[in-house]
Amino acid sequence: MCGIVGIIDQKPVAKNIVSALKCLEYRGYDSAGIATLDKGHLECIRATGKLINLEKKLKKYSLPGTIGIGHTRWATHGEPSEQNAHPHTTEKVAVVHNGIIENFKELREMLNKKGYTTTTQTDTEVIAKLLTLYLDNNLSMKEALETTLKSLQGAFALAIISPMDLDKIYFARKGSPLVIGIGENSNYIASDAIALASYTHQVIYPEEGDWGYITQKNYQIFNKDNKVTKHPIHTLNLSTQTASKGAYRHFMEKEIFEQSTVLNETLSSYLTPEKNELSLPKFIFDKNKLNRLTIIACGTSYYAACIAKYWIEKYAKIPVEVDIASEFRYRQPALGSAENHACLFISQSGETIDTLEALRYVKAKGLPTISIVNVTHSSISRETDSMWPTFAGPEIGVASTKAFSCQLMTLACFTLGLAKTKINQKEFSDLLESLKSISMWLEKMPNLRQECLTAARTLAKATDVLYLGRGTNFPMALEGALKLKEISYIHAEAYAAGEMKHGPIALIDALTPIVALAPNDNLIEKTISNLQEASARGGKIISLGDAESLKKLETISIHTIEIPTVPTFIQPFILTLPMQLLAYETALLKGTDVDQPRNLAKSVTVE
Ligand code: AGP
Fold first, then answer.
1. 580 lines ligand 1 (CB under 6 A)
2. Minimal-distance CA residue to ligand 1 atom 7
3. How many CB atoms lie within 10 A of CB 242?
4. Is residue 6 helix, strand or coil?
5. Is the dihedral of CA 231, 5, 199, 216 positive or negative?
6. What Å distances lie between residue 189 and 168, 176, 214, 306, 345, CA to CA?
7. Which of 85, 168, 384, 397 is 20 to 30 Å from 294 by CA-CA measure?
8. What is the pLDDT of residues 342-382, one digit of tens each?
């Protein structure tokens, strides 16, 4: 997703804007740009590709000016090009934008009729032209922005500078994240507070529909009714040092191997200091009256939700629906009453617009809302009635790894909190003890790296891969397929193993490897039957299992990856590691951009 930065300072801002944009690279982008105001003169430089290309240009034409805005663009309208890169400028304004202006075509037609021709394929350009139209009609910059905002439909986070108003950066947010940073003798605007960690930890979160401006020493916020409004200043404990890869080749590799540590930290955060009892946030609903839980999320977070469905229904005996956020609010879901129906939202970034808008839909219906998020100062965490952090730490790799497993840990604790009065004390203690053992088991796979690399050599040659599993191994298979496709660009699909004979078995041939999630559990004999059906039709099977299940599968497997024998409840945590490494090793062989895969963004803030 696009990243926005604005800085007003006592000294030239260009370098600090680029540094701040680097902290937003994780959001994914394909071009970048910066504009500054110097003695009333607007200067703008843009470049396609990574920020290094913009820096090369800035070396040639240094941008003076102590007020400026910058942008990393994740293309929505118009291909990645210098012409479509932000900032979009006229002689009177420079604009950077994150979001989608849904009525940009009508606005473009209106502007063209008035002689304001547009030259790019972007929706953002119409904002620059609208502001200029109103400035040309002698409106002040503040009036021009107020008027412009009234005609924009869709989602936007904006930062704007103008030679017509030399000491301000204007901003506006609706549907896209934006934060104001308060410095000593400088002020800031950014899409994410992490971009400001090196300059300030004092931040303000404008609310939906807020707009206004910052100056070097002050700021003014207007609400959606254009009335002056105030919001509290939050002090964040952002890590001032931007994440580093350390000895690892990629952030993703580092984050895969951080899991053993962060899973322990997440679990510890939900236990008493003595670590023998759960210590959970208060449930905001009556657990005894709750007879329906809907979990809403996207992508990897959705697959975590699918695993939680098995757990909550089995142990807490509560019916669970899992919904893809982008479908949920448009299908007019039949919701229950606030007394017996709650909704849980899972999001690593806490800014995924599909999930955020689904949350707003549910809140408008009056149901209790809980979130499980990694970025605890995010919109979703702020807008739900109760927020459960995942404590994974900043996840820079676009492909979710440690955030996913920490979502599972938080969901497991959430499940046990709901199940405490539904299962006997011994079963409860056994489940809790199994969570405590996860980090130990993750360290007990000495041959894992080599086994994954061997299997990856087969996957790297494939154009299509199938992932199969039963029980919680089915959503794990969905997640494994997503990991492979999003970082290696190989087409991968996942099926419930029992579903194969209802059609997908037609796909089986010697060229389509099958990754089988087959640890020993109560379904293993049925899983083996499904795999034997596939093998009999030429399927090349890569079996992930424990010693016992692999013994039964070795005759039909071309590769095996061994995990320790663990209780079924924690198998998803253990399978996560080989699943992620399989995708990572395959992507290395394919030579793709593992940390910032093509077309992807870390936080999808457009619908
Ligand atoms: C995960 O590897 C993907 N990058 C993507 O599916 C992600 O999980 C999804 O976009 C949801 O993001 P969120 O958890 O920040 O809401």
1. no
2. 299
3. 16
4. strand
5. negative
6. 11, 13, 8, 37, 27
7. 397
8. 999 999 999 999 999 999 999 999 999 999 999 888 899 99
The distance of Cα 375 from the centroid of its chain, to the nearest Å, equals: 9
560 membership: H or E segment, kind and range:
strand 557-562
pLDDT of residue 84: 83
Q: Would you state the pLDDT for residue 238?
A: 65
Would you say 18 and 192 are in contact if contact means Cβ atoms under 8 Å apart? no
Q: Is residue 452 among the annotated active site residues?
A: no
Counting as low any pLDDT under 50, the low residues of the chain are 240-242
Residue 354: both structure tokens together:
């599909």
DSSP annotation of 207: P
Domains and CATH numbers, the chain: 3-242 (3.60.20.10), 245-443 (3.40.50.10490), 446-592 (3.40.50.10490)
- b/e map 84-109, b = 16+ CB within 10 Å: bbbbbbbebbbbbbbbbbeebeebbe
Q: Measure 77 CA to ligand 1 centroid, in angstroms.
A: 22
- How many CA atoms does the CB half-sphere of 210 hold within 13 Å? 20
Indicate if 602 belongs to the active site: yes
DSSP string, 426-454: HHHHHHHHHHHHHHHHHT--TTHHHHHHH
> CA angle, 603 as apex, 13 and 439 as ends, to 5°?
110
Contact 205, 179 (CB under 8 A): yes
Query: What pLDDT, on the 0 to 100 scale, is given for residue 278?
Result: 94
Residue to mutate (ligand 1; options 300, 345, 396, 476; most atoms within 8 A of CB): 300
Query: Are the C-beta atoms of residues 168 and 221 closer than 8 Å to each other?
Result: no
| 461 Cβ contact partners less than 8 Å away, ≥ 6 residues apart | none
Going through 142-290 in order, the beta strands assigned E by DSSP cover 154-161, 169-174, 179-182, 187-190, 202-204, 211-214, 219-222, 228-229, 234-235
Task: Show the beta-strand stretches assigned E in 208-257.
Answer: 211-214, 219-222, 228-229, 234-235
Q: Kindly state the helix (H) or strand (E) to which residue 561 belongs, with its residue range.
A: strand 557-562
Output the DSSP codes for 376-398: TTSHHHHHSSEEEE-------SS
**Tokens (6 digits) for 257:** 């191997």
Which residues have a Cβ under 8 Å from the Cβ of 454 and sit 6 or more positions away?
559
pTM: 0.80
- Cα of first residue to Cα of last residue in the chain, in angstroms, is 11
Radius of gyration over every alpha carbon of the chain, rounded to an integer in angstroms: 26
> What does the block give as tokens for 601?
């963004």
Name residue 79's amino acid.
E
Per-residue pLDDT tens over the stretch 443-468? 888 899 999 999 999 999 999 999 99
The confidence score (pLDDT) of residue 241 equals 46
Question: Ligand 1: does its nearest atom lie under 6 Å from the Cβ of 392?
Answer: no
